[in-house]
């Protein structure tokens, strides 16, 4: 029996849960409320419930299911989902596999003119490559699973700690976790070797934050530390069912009929590690796949590039061309076939004799198998290979995007979107959050006499000897400080500094001295504020779960200090809804004070009456700070009498113990005490834009990319950032009132400016409250129209949800390709909503990086990522697709022209093996080299002329006009190759005096075709490397070698008796060599003339740049990443770092479908590779490794 609340229900019913909805990291929402009861240290009581074990398995196959299931997934899995309109790339590739499977089946019937090997061989090769990839990935998953499941943990058995494998761990077990070890399951924290029942946890695997978190056990369970005492523990945990919410936990602990509320502070999640604590004891709550990290270890939403979607349309167009060709042949066959022609040998019983409709019907399917090569089966495999190498070898190893200070290279976490980087139109960004340093600028108006020789501390840039280290108390003339409310100056400033030193969640580390202490903070802003308090004489040096210790230097005279212990009674946490944080503390003398800090609009709404003057003056200072680009914060306090506090605390405890809607009830209770506040001051945080950000934004603007800034900062700060673009912008302020009227008015003004000859560049600035109304369905169109008429859009005071809504509005409403970039957890939804998401590995954690498609260390690297790698990838993929289309169409059309000579009978023109190996062997490598090394202009010129990027925005290289030009080229070359050879061969004779037959002619046409198609690669390449010559020459040579071998052997059961000795006969004639020289030249002459005319009279932008700099040497020829021949020591170190194993794709499928398995297997082989914070699942469960001492 399992109890849920006060009800007793059957155990099976307690686990009849509603299916949990899959939510990715960053979109966490609590699941449907249902509860479980866990009996601690009592396996027998938990046995009837049958909780899931702690063993995990992430493999997709086993020995018996690999082949059938793998083939089923590759070919048939899409048959049940063809109704889906928006298919993914992998699914569309499987549709192509289904097509070729159908063609292979048709080739086994009597109506097929070709051998089954013609279509079965290419399909088998593609499927074999896919199955090998699946097997390799699944083997890696299996190895990882075995390593994780066999890790050991100590559990309590018979009053002693016994090591067991993780896989044998069960819900309710009492476990002992040692320092630096990973938690094997979600564990209820009971006791710790640290005083006051606290421990320190690193959560980098979950949220990317490397700062330590403090966890506190319930005081009732502190004694259960040694095995003798822990064996006496018999408690019941009544908690929520397993869900994917990392930051919430609702439950109660029942010990000896006493109910104690549980919160996330008592839950230690699998994937975290224990730090600065000898060991802890806990009770297992969730195991295996029911742990929170495992329920979050899902693939991010799959994204497809716009080019891939257009490729789907091109494939459909090619299929329509195929159907048209077959219909022409079928109709022609039914017309020209005459049963009276005795040479056909038709009889009454033959199907051809029945009627012309039957003749056309069967001929249609005959031609389908004959022309099936028009759709390239190797296209998708080649594109995936090219994208993979582009990501791993070019983007990840570009030294221009390597940040030496943080030892962070660029990382392409998926290779699906490389070419999408070259077509961006909109760039929503959390621009103000991209700072690499947060400094405190406190009350600029008192900074008159600043010491020039002061040593500035990181995060603090203020120095005034009249105020520092408590000297403000001894200042004889407070008027010099120019602080308002001079009468209250001392009291207000004291409360302000105490608020900074007490109201936070910072953890101190190291020696308790101002010079050596290190603050671990969730954000750089909090660290800057605590550092400021320290420098003003309020040194926060120690924290326990219930106490905060501050060394105050303002007592009596300067130089004297006093350690003051403040008891923390309640903490009202900060969240994006509350936008504030409060603590209730008790002074040593018994005084009760509520300190609160938060956004100015939130604090102003909760001030006591009679503070209008204070509010007015403070608002002026805030506007001054905001216009300077500083991020502001208001601080307030409230004295509490014991009766008021005790009455409120009872409600707070009840809300904290609630199992339903706990967060909502806590917010409601907080509103009861966070009122009647006294404003004591404000701070201003300088969140510096990273180096090169203004230049980067200006360059991107010249490239035709419109910048949208979505930030939570004040409007003045946001406007200041907009001016950081360097443009003269006219600001259109849209306020909350009369939103609809203002939107329409602003739209009319913007359209008026747009029609002027030299109108100013416009920027729209809108705040979060107004945006809430503007995003209403009735106003979205107006908002979108107004935004599209502006050069830039700045949305300030917006929530994470609004960031995602604005991004989706542009993506779906304007149908523009969007790129989102951010560095904080509040940017995750925006990053996932855009076509491409880029995370900046800054100081606000790694959540944005974990949710991104590409990761960079600095905003300025966006220039190289988009203008260089994005442009090149788009150009390369476009040329690869066009070339595939061209070479397959050329090959198929020669067969099509031959059907006119054979009366549309379906007679094959080429040998079966020629047709099979044309795509996968004789023309495969040069196109891959084209996709890897094609480069229209150098990287330096790409950044020097950002206007070149507009070609990608206009999609200049994948228009239907371009497709038509390539199709025309294919028709021309196929006619030249076919007609020149067939016409001239009528009178040609071999050395024995015999005229050429069908297989002599077809072999010669095929040879000319292979040469022309491969040499065409050199004509279309802007940069030709040795690999071009090697692959082009090698492909032609491979065909000749194959022809020599294949035409020289024969067996009784194959069909190559037709081409036996053909190549030797051909090479014995002068005609063969003359045709090999003449036909490819004439066939390529049309392309040569077309390219010359286009370059002279209708040039692309990059061709103009090529002409301007055609006499300049290409400095990047030596290396594709423009690495100089002589590297400095720092550059050499950078290059060495870039060679280390790193995450390749978030869609790899390894290790719980999360990236980063490389460093794990490297460690198994004895090779050290740095571990990354976003490697969620592997580090979540991997056995701990001894700390390697740093070399001095």
From TrEMBL:
Residues 38-75 form the P-type ATPase N-terminal domain. Residues 1-12 have a biased composition (Polar residues). GO terms for cellular component: Golgi membrane; plasma membrane; trans-Golgi network. GO terms for biological process: Golgi vesicle budding; phospholipid translocation. Its main location: membrane. It catalyses: ATP + H2O + phospholipidSide 1 = ADP + phosphate + phospholipidSide 2. It is a multi-pass membrane protein. It is an enzyme of class 7 (translocase). Mg(2+) binds at residues 823, 827. Keywords: ATP-binding, Magnesium, Membrane, Metal-binding, Nucleotide-binding, Translocase, Transmembrane, Transmembrane helix, Transport. The chain crosses the membrane at residues 314-337, 357-381, 880-898, 918-937, 958-981, 996-1015, 1027-1049, 1061-1085. One of its GO terms (molecular function) is ATP binding. Pfam families: Cation_ATPase (PF13246), E1-E2_ATPase (PF00122), PhoLip_ATPase_C (PF16212), PhoLip_ATPase_N (PF16209). The keyword Transferase does not apply. Belongs to the cation transport ATPase (P-type) (TC 3.A.3) family. Type IV subfamily. This is Phospholipid-transporting ATPase. It comes from Brassica oleracea var. oleracea. The lineage of its organism: Eukaryota, Viridiplantae, Streptophyta, Embryophyta, Tracheophyta.
């Amino acid at each position: 029996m399992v109890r849920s609340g006060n009800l007793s229900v059957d155990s099976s019913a307690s686990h009849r849960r509603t299916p949990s909805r899959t939510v990715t990291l960053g979109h966490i929402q609590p699941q449907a409320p249902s509860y479980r009861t866990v009996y601690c240290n009592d396996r027998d009581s938990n046995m009837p419930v049958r909780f899931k074990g702690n063993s995990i398995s992430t493999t997709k196959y086993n020995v018996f299911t690999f082949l059938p299931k793998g083939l089923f997934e590759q070919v048939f899995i899409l048959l049940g989902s063809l109704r889906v309109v928006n298919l993914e790339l992998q699914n569309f590739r499987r549709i192509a596999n289904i097509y070729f499977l159908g063609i292979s089946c048709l080739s086994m019937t009597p109506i097929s003119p070709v051998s089954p090997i013609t279509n079965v061989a290419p399909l088998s090769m593609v499927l074999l490559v896919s199955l090998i990839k699946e097997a390799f990935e699944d083997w890696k998953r299996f190895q990882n699973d075995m390593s994780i499941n066999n890790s050991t943990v100590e559990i309590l058995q018979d009053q002693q700690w016994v090591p067991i494998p993780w896989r044998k761990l069960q819900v309710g077990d009492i476990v002992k976790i040692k320092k630096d070890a990973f938690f094997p399951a979600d564990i209820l924290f009971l006791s710790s070797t640290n005083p006051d029942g606290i421990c320190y946890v690193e959560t980098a695997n979950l949220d990317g934050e490397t700062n330590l978190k403090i966890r506190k056990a319930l005081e009732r369970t502190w004694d259960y530390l040694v095995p003798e005492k822990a064996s006496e523990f018999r408690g019941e945990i009544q908690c929520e069912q397993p869900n994917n919410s990392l930051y919430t936990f609702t439950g109660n602990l029942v010990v000896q009929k006493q109910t104690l509320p549980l919160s996330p502070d008592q839950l230690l999640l699998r994937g975290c590690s224990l730090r600065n604590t000898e060991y802890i004891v806990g009770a297992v709550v969730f195991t295996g796949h029911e742990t929170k990290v495992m329920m979050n270890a899902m693939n991010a939403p799959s994204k497809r590039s716009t080019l891939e979607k257009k490729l789907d349309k091109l494939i459909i167009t090619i299929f329509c061309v195929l159907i048209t060709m077959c219909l022409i042949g079928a109709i022609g066959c039914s017309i020209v076939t005459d049963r009276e022609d005795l040479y056909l040998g038709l009889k009454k019983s033959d199907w051809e004799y029945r009627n012309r409709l039957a003749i056309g019907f069967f001929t249609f399917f005959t031609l389908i198998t004959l022309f099936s090569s028009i759709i390239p089966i190797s296209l998708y495999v080649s594109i995936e290979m090219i994208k993979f190498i582009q990501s791993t070898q070019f983007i990840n190893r570009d030294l221009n995007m390597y940040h030496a200070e943080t030892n962070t290279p660029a990382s392409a976490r998926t290779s699906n979107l490389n070419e999408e980087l070259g077509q961006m139109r909109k760039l929503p960004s959390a621009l103000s959050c991209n700072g690499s340093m947060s400094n405190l600028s406190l009350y600029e108006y008192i900074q008159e006499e600043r010491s020039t020789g002061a040593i500035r501390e990181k995060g603090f840039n203020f120095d005034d000897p009249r105020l520092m280290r408590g000297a403000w108390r001894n200042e004889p003339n407070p008027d010099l400080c120019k602080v308002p409310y001079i009468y209250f100056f001392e009291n207000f400033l004291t409360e302000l500094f105490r608020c900074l030193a007490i109201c936070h969640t910072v953890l101190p580390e190291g020696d308790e001295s101002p010079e050596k202490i290190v603050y671990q903070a969730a954000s750089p802003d909090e660290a800057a504020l605590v550092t400021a308090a320290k420098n003003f004489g309020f040194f926060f040096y120690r924290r326990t779960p219930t106490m905060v210790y501050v060394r105050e230097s303002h007592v009596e005279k300067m130089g004297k200090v006093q350690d003051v212990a403040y008891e923390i009674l309640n903490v009202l946490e900060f969240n994006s809804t509350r936008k504030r944080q409060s603590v209730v503390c008790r002074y040593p003398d018994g005084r009760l004070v509520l300190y609160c800090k938060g956004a100015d609009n939130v604090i102003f709404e909760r001030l006591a009456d009679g503070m209008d003057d204070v509010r007015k003056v403070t608002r002026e200072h805030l506007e001054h700070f905001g216009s300077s680009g500083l991020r502001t914060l208001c601080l307030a306090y409230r004295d509490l009498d014991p009766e008021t506090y005790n009455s409120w605390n009872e409600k707070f405890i009840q809300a904290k113990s609630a199992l339903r809607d706990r967060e909502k009830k806590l917010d409601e209770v907080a509103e009861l005490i966070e009122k009647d506040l006294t404003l004591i001051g404000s701070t201003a945080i300088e969140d510096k834009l990273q180096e090169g950000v203004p230049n980067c934004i200006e360059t991107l603007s010249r490239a035709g990319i419109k910048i949208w800034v979505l930030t939570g900062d004040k409007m003045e700060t946001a406007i200041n950032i907009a001016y950081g673009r360097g443009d003269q912008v006219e600001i259109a302020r849209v306020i909350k009132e009369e939103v609809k009227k203002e939107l329409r008015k602003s739209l009319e003004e913007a359209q008026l400016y747009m029609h002027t000859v030299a109108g100013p560049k416009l920027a729209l600035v809108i705040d979060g409250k107004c945006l809430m109304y503007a995003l209403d369905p009735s106003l979205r169109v107006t908002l979108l129209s107004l935004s599209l008429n502006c050069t830039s859009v700045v949305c300030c005071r917006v929530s994470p949800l609004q960031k995602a809504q604005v991004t989706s509005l542009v993506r779906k409403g304007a149908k523009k390709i969007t790129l989102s970039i951010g560095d904080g957890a509040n940017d995750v939804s925006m990053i996932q909503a855009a076509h491409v998401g880029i995370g900046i590995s800054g100081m606000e954690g790694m959540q944005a990086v974990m949710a991104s498609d590409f990761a960079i260390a600095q905003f300025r690297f966006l220039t190289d990522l988009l203008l260089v790698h994005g442009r090149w990838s788009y150009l390369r993929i476009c040329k690869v697709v066009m070339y595939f289309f061209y070479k397959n169409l050329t090959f198929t059309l020669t067969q099509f022209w031959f059907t006119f000579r054979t009366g549309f009978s379906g007679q094959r023109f080429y040998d079966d093996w020629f047709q099979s190996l044309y795509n996968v062997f004789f023309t495969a490598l040069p196109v891959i080299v084209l996709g890897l090394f094609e480069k229209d202009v150098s990287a330096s010129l790409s950044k020097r002329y950002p206007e070149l990027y507009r070609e990608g925005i206009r999609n200049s290289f994948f228009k239907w006009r371009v497709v038509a030009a390539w199709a025309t080229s294919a028709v021309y070359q196929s006619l030249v190759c076919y007609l020149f050879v067939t016409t001239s061969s009528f009178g040609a004779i071999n050395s024995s005096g015999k005229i050429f037959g069908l297989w002599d002619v077809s072999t010669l046409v095929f040879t000319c075709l292979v040469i022309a198609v491969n040499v065409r690669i050199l004509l279309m390449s802007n940069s030709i490397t040795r690999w071009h010559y090697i692959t082009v020459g090698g492909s032609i040579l491979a065909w000749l070698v194959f022809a020599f071998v294949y035409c020289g052997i024969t067996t009784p059961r194959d069909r190559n008796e037709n081409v036996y000795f053909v190549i030797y006969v051909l090479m014995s004639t002068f005609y063969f060599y003359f045709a090999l020289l003449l036909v490819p030249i004439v066939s390529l002459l049309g392309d040569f003339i077309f390219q010359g005319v286009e370059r002279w009279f209708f040039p692309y932008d990059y061709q103009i740049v090529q002409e301007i700099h055609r006499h300049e040497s290409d400095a990047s020829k030596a290396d594709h990443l423009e690495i100089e021949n002589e590297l400095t020591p720092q550059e050499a170190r950078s290059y060495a770092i870039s060679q280390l194993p790193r995450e390749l794709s978030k869609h790899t499928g390894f290790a719980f479908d999360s990236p980063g398995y490389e460093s794990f297997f490297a460690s198994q082989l004895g090779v050290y590779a740095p571990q990354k914070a976003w490697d969620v699942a592997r580090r979540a469960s991997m056995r701990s490794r001894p700390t390697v001492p740093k070399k001095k």
